[in-house]
Amino acid sequence: MNFKQQVFVTEYLKDRNAMQAAIRAGYSAASAHVTSAKLMKNAEVKAAIDAKTAKVLNKLEVSVERILQERARMAFYDPADIARERLRKPEDIANLPEDARRVVAGWDYDAKGKMRVKLADKNASLTALEKHLNMYRDDAGDGSPLNIHIHLGD
Questions:
Q1: CATH of region 3-59, choose from 3.40.50.300, 1.10.10.1400, 2.30.130.10, 1.10.510.10
Q2: Largest Cα–Cα distance of the chain, in whole Å?
Q3: Residues forming beta bridges with residue 118, ordered by sequence position
């Protein structure tokens, strides 16, 4: 891999924008769309991107299992676990059970100073899990939403 390609890899990993990475690496802006597409198909460049991405994910302990575990927590949390607690200040969130803490997406205060807790979107997490489990099949093969069926096993 030449020097410009190495710079492209470094720049690409900053924001995953191949065209901008090509420009920042010193390739012509006028042909960046073509150059970036070629670079992304280059076996050495692709291998370097994959290797550096894997290194970062490993360092951060990001794995499919960890992501699915977090999605499952958000998909299956019981709002009663949070409703039972008197949440008056952000520190009170620390006293929640771990699964309940992990679904707290944020908090604010209303006009009267009462704390409001925003929870993760259960539907989005359920949908992500359903897609991961390949529960949706398109029998027509054209992506038409009218032909999508929930697949419940083999």
A1: 1.10.10.1400
A2: 62
A3: 106
